[in-house]
Structure formats: C-alpha cells, structure tokens
Amino acid sequence: MKNKLHFPTSYNNRETKNKLFEKIQQERSHIGYYNLPNQKIDAILEYVETIDSSIETIAVIGIGGSSLGAKAVYQFLKPVKTPTRDLVFFESTDPLNIIATCSQMNLDKTHFLIISKSGTTVETIAVFKYVYAKLNSVKNYTFITDRDSALDQFAQKIEAKCFYLPESVGGRFSVLSVVGLLPLALCGVDIAALLAGAKNIKESFFGDGYIKETLLNKAIYYAKHHTKYNINCLFAYSETLTYFTEWYVQLWGESLGKKQRHSAFNVGVTPIGLIGPKDQHSFLQLIVEGTRDKSVTFIKIEDFQDELVIPDITLPYLEKLDVLNGVAFHDLITMQSDSVIEALMDQGDIPLDEIIIERVNEASIGQLIYYYELLTSLVGELIDVNTYDQPGVESGKIILKKKLNGGK
Ligand code: PA5
C-alpha cells in the first residue's frame, strides 16, 4: 500500500509528531484493537471445521460494528475469490428487508451468527427473536458477545457456542477480532492473510516504517484544519469498496463526532463515502465548485487482475468514441481517477491524498482497515475527543426504551 499526500506537511513540527506518537503508544496498553493483528486464530479455524458442510449460508444478525467490517471485507473479495458459502446480513428492523433477506436463503441450510458486544441491542435481538421463533430449533446458532452479557447467558442456557470479544475492543474497532474473523473464515476468507496485511501496517507504524510519517502528517493536517475542512470524502475507485466506505463512515463518525474532553465544544470531521467513477456524475461537482470545506482521499487499485477490454468496434454516430477501442477497463478507470485528481489539484485549495492498494486480496483490505483505525485514533487524540465511546447515540436508545415500555 502506498499513500501520497498532496497537501503541505513540511511545517508539522517534530515535537508535535513525537508527542502524538507517544500518546498512541500509551493507548496500546489499554485499547485492545492495536494488538489484534498478532492474535492466535487457531480456535476460530478449528471451530470453522466443526460446521456442517451442508451449511450453504452464513447469516450475521448484528448492526454497526458487529456487521459492517465483515460485510466490507466479504464484498471487497467476492468478485475475485468465490466464497465457499454466502454471507448475508440482517442489520435492520425494516420488515421488508427482513422478509427479503430470509427469502434469499434456505433457512435449514443456514448457520446464524448473532453478534452483539453489549448483547442487548434492540435491532439485533428483535431480528434474532424472529428467526429463532421461525426456525423452532436451537441448532445452527453461534453467538459472539462480551463475557457475561445477557446474550452470553442466553447462549449458555440453550447450550450454544459463544465466542467472546477480546477485552477493550470497541464495536467499531472489532472487525479484526472474532466479530469479523469468524463470519469471514466460515465463508472461506483467508483470515491469516487479512491479519498479515493489518500487521504490515502496524509494524510499519510502530516500527518507524514508511507509513508512520505519512499517517502522522495526515492526522496533524486533518486536525489542524478540522474547522475549515470539516468534511472528509473517501473516494474509492472500485465498486468492491462500497461497503468499506460504509465501515469508514461508521468508524470515523462515531469515533470523532464528539464534545471535546477539555472543553464544551462539539467537533468532528464529517465522513462521506464516494465510489468512482459513479460519483463523478454526482458529488464531484460539489467538491470542485462547492464550499471549500472538504478534503478528499482517493483509493486506487494498482492491479485489477483482469484483462477486460473495450471491443474494437465502430458504432454509427458514435465514431468520436472510437478512442475507447481496445482500451482495457482497468486502464480506463485508472485514467478516470487520475484525471479527477489532476483536475482537483489544479484548483489549488482542496487537500487531497491518494491511497494505492496493490490488488484485491485479503492482505490489501487488512492494510486498509488497520490504516484507517490508526488514522482515527490519531485524529481523535489531536482534536481532543474520546475516540472510543459513543455517548451521543445513547439518548435515542433511552427514549426508545421508554416508548417500548408504553411511555413509562
Ligand atoms: O461501535 C460501536 O460501539 C457501535 O456502533 C456498535 O457496534 C453498535 O451499536 C452495535 O452494538 P452491539 O455490538 O453492542 O450490538
């Protein structure tokens, strides 16, 4: 993975960088996600072997940090690596979505993973109740939750297998724990390679490698300018990254949109997920000519491992587009992203950077995940928020509980 920054960083002073790096080093002792790339995965792999080969579908019932990471990785890999099983997600209380998702699968050949760190998330438990009642059977369930949660106790009661989140790993930072690894391994994803990708970024950052300076510079730039450039667009040039941008929106939004720790001010950098070239025909206008409040990160794939070429044919009235003849689609999409980058650079006042990943595989997405987790922690530290809590989402939950209790 390469990351080219197209904004000035030379004024970032060494002392600020050292202090920031030290803070993140200190977090490693009590924030669990940092060490996930080094975990042992034998228990997960052994469990995968116990799941009956007649199972065709793995259905995750979970929401937010309990579903988005696995979904992002699965959708990224699917076009290049045929999954051994389908992975589907129940993430909503939308009745039409529940019915549609159920209709996609043979329930008797489905293994359900009920994933909830807290174990009491309304959406997750509501859908689980529906499926549990419908299936009328206690087999084919595996639970992932915090030890001793209500969901853990329920799993014990029905004698189902329960995995536990490692200590101090928050929901949205949990994709590289059993939360993401188990569903992915059950569908044939090479989770060792996924972790190896993440480890590569971890070692590069903590071991003075190439990504350390880049990430520190980028985080300092974002934090320093967070009131002016208060929107960050992640513009990924591949449909395979659609759900990755959703994962990023959750990670960034829930981690950084906060009241500052040492003041009463509300801060945050708004995340927007965009997909190229589709969003060239939509959001791009707003970036080029709209308010100068956005930074943009482009993600490009170096090698699509594909030779699909535009046929060498001339169509009447469309002769001018013969320039496309014989052009490989992977070259076209790269030329498109490069053209947009050049056009934005010409504006002169839009902070841009490019992330180039080698190819669509487990290691690349592992790198991207860990890179974004680190960037989130760094920016959170600099803008003085608690990156790992989410008090803002609690008030709505309390009101919902009251409503469900008949207003009491
Ligand atoms: O990052 C978070 O903590 C949240 O987005 C949670 O992942 C989300 O609310 C789901 O919670 P739980 O896993 O407890 O069901």
Distance between the termini: 53 Å
DSSP helical segment count: 14
Rounded mean pLDDT is 96
Unreliable segments of 5+ consecutive residues: none
The structural domain count equals 2
How does the major sheet shape up? 5 strands, mixed
Which class of secondary structure composition applies to the elements? alpha/beta
Shape: globular
Query: At CATH's second level, what is the architecture of the largest domain?
Result: 3-Layer(aba) Sandwich
Helix content: 40-55%
Query: What portion of the residues fall into strands of 2 or more residues?
Result: 15-25%
CATH topology of the largest domain, by name, is Rossmann fold
Element pattern in H and E: EHHEHEHEHEHEHHHEHEEEHEHEHH
Radius of gyration: 22 Å
Distinct small molecules: 5-phosphoarabinonic acid
CATH class of the largest domain: Alpha Beta
